[in-house]
Design goal:
2 copies of one chain form a homodimer.
Chain A: H1 3-10, E1 17-22, H2 37-40, H3 44-52, E2 54-59, E3 66-67, H4 69-76, H5 88-95, E4 104-114, E5 120-122, H6 130-140, E6 149-156, E7 159-165, H7 196-213, E8 221-229, H8 236-240, E9 244-247, H9 251-259, E10 263-264, H10 271-281, E11 287-292, H11 294-300, H12 304-322, E12 330-334, E13 351-356, H13 370-376, E14 381-383, H14 387-394
Parallel strand pairs in A: 1-11, 1-12, 2-14, 9-10, 9-11
Antiparallel strand pairs in A: 2-13, 4-5, 4-7, 4-8, 6-7, 12-13
Helix pairs in contact in A: 4-9, 5-9, 10-12, 11-12
Chain lengths: 403, 403
């Protein structure tokens, strides 16, 4: 029996679950023997949670493997990132929180410029400013293809997303970007039988788009890359029986949550507003994914002190979250990967994770941090895909397997 | 996506990696509560490495499974020993460092004696001394089979290796040893379609060999066992992008390394010479496998004190190895399995392992030993096949998975 089949067969009613994801929270000491960002931070509330909860180290994908945001979150949501891969087009669509459906093919598009012979002169249309490219994108909404719903959405500068929605569209079409100037955009070519219709639709889109763009001074052509359908994820409702809400500021994480069938609630602009949204929606959902971005951002900046402060920000709002918990509810604080300021990038290091509910077997951890969770964590080292079953269990939501 | 596919898709350039394998290094206390061989040893250099590095416990195959040298090393090299199995003939060939190629069928042969009717009188030819059997082996090099390259190499006493090299040779042929005296050697019988040609070649080899051996006083016949082709291992170069060198004294470990496509460098006769060979070749390779045999040998002898001394020998030469490490390089000290003197045999116990690079998340281990690595090791317990990805990551050689 496979993991998802097992969970589905055991799921039952129980308490609420709050999964707080502090992006890239794991870190490294700047000096051997020194504290990590998390250990350097003053975190009385996270420490109190660790003291009464149970900690462990989460391996996002596999030992040594550094995940991007997509695989990192998929793992936390309980989908094996090696099985459920998110194509580039879908990730781009997720990144603007476009609600990708099962019949959608998503494509990352670039505006480019071509000369009178149709040869590319600039593959990125001079990185045309977003406010201008958004206007050009609007023009492309005029493209009509019979039997296909077409979405065209701006992303940033020369980048935009096209989504074809319809029956019988495969996601396996080659990129049309020739990867050099002085060449025409390539024809979209299907790489399998199921994607022939998609290639035809893409060709038709391209032809109409070129007519529309004719005479545009800054962006008179386009290339299409990363054709992809969404991975066939069972939704949180199907898999866990959880009515799930996602609370995030950044579109990417909303997009990833919506792939798992979570509902996007509120429109918070900062962490305090995220907690407000959580309060407002507390009675309406069983599961909450709350995403805190800036531990990752400051880690990526290579700024140890700033990352430490972002940890303290999370600590500051924690009481507002834990105050909501009822007797049978479960809370978890974790990250999708580590982003040590020392490396100024995502890394492969395991992520300290703390879980609390009245069913947890409290371990001897007194603080939330890498060393403490590693040395004394009652959850040991575990793969991120096993976190959701652990949270379900801690919320009394997993029945007995076998008699 | 499968592990090797993942690693191959993420591999990138980075620092050098040194994997020091102290064979059978894991041990057991002689008395409950006492130290293991490793813990009893005085190892200031290994302890210093553990203090600044990150430790963990490596499970060679699966919990409870005691590996032989073949599966033990395959696991460390990152090949799942349950997937990539080394047939007996190949292991025998590896044991004399014969460079087994993809078109080779390897066979463990025994000299035997037969009476005038061809019935076996001694299945091991009286354990004929190696110096004598080596001379008889030389005679067999006269066997010629059209279209097939034939290698005949001595091993020890009555044992020798035959290798057939050629196109279309399957490795699935039944043993010809009837397992009793008073019977003739069996005909080699193919167990599948692809191995029919091999069976014919083996029959021809046998016939010519018997003619050559006629009249030999001590060994006038042979049996053939363990027909096998090498497992289809992707090489270190293909899999990890590593130009890999193996430094070992014993032929078996050279043979195992050469199955993984490592180059055998130098001809060291002891540990000091192995370190010399490492120095001499430092600039020429990305990866070094350095094998230290005697921790296993003395464990097999059941000699706790002698094994402890062999650990101290390794500790003595360690500074000569670590002195070579550049800023981005990575070193690991581990074993292919445990060989507790208490058991005088290989065992299933996890193997203490330490990794150091400037990317390691230093844990609270202060010494290199079983208890310390188990209680505080930042790598936790891991399967040996995940060690190579971990070392790649620590040497900055694995890119990000997904965006």
């Amino acid at each position: 029996m496979e993991l998802h089949e097992l969970i589905q067969s055991l799921k039952t009613d129980g308490g609420k679950i709050v999964m707080v994801v502090s992006d890239g929270i794991g870190g490294l000491p700047l000096q051997p023997g020194g504290p990590t960002e998390l250990e350097a931070a003053n975190t009385p509330n996270l420490d109190a949670l660790a003291a009464k909860g149970v900690s462990g180290m989460s391996t996002p994908v596999l030992p040594g493997v550094t995940p991007g945001s997509g695989p990192g979150h998929l793992g936390l949501f309980g989908y094996d990132p090696l099985v459920f891969q998110i194509g580039r087009g879908v990730l781009e669509a997720a990144g603007i929180a476009f609600p990708v459906g099962p019949n959608d093919v998503c494509i990352r598009c670039n505006f480019c410029t071509v000369d009178e012979n149709g040869l590319i002169t600039d593959r990125r249309a001079g990185r045309i400013p977003t406010e201008e490219s958004s206007e050009v994108v609007k023009l492309l909404k005029a493209v009509k293809i019979p039997g296909i719903e077409v979405f065209v959405e701006p992303v940033k500068e020369h980048r935009f997303v096209v989504v074809f929605r319809g029956e019988g569209l495969g996601g396996n079409v080659a990129d049309t970007d020739p990867q050099r100037t002085g060449a025409k955009p390539l024809d979209p070519v299907a790489k399998d039988e199921e994607s022939k219709k998609t290639a035809e639709v893409a060709k038709e889109f391209f032809n109409q788009a070129v007519q529309i763009l004719k005479g545009q001074p800054k962006a008179n052509c386009l290339t299409m890359r990363g054709f992809a359908k969404k991975p066939n994820l069972p939704s949180y409702e199907e898999l866990y029986g959880l009515k799930a809400a996602a609370i995030a500021v950044y579109p990417m994480y909303k997009g990833l949550a919506s792939l798992a069938g979570m509902e996007l609630v509120g429109a918070p602009a900062n962490l305090d507003e995220e907690v407000e949204v959580l309060k407002e929606n507390w009675d309406k959902y069983d599961f909450f994914f709350l995403h805190w971005k800036y531990t990752d951002s400051r880690g990526e900046d290579g700024d140890f002190e700033a990352k430490r402060k972002m940890v303290e920000e999370l600590d500051r709002v924690l009481p507002g979250i834990t105050a909501l918990l009822g007797e049978n509810d479960c809370i978890c604080v974790t990250g999708d990967h580590s982003t040590p300021a020392k490396m100024a990038s995502h890394s492969f290091h395991p992520v300290p994770t703390v879980v609390y509910s009245n069913l947890c077997r409290t371990d001897s951890c007194q603080k939330y941090g890498e060393t403490e969770a590693n040395d004394k964590g009652g959850l040991g080292h575990f793969q991120a895909i096993h976190l959701m079953p652990l949270l379900m269990a801690h919320a009394g939501r997993l029945g007995k397997f076998g008699a």
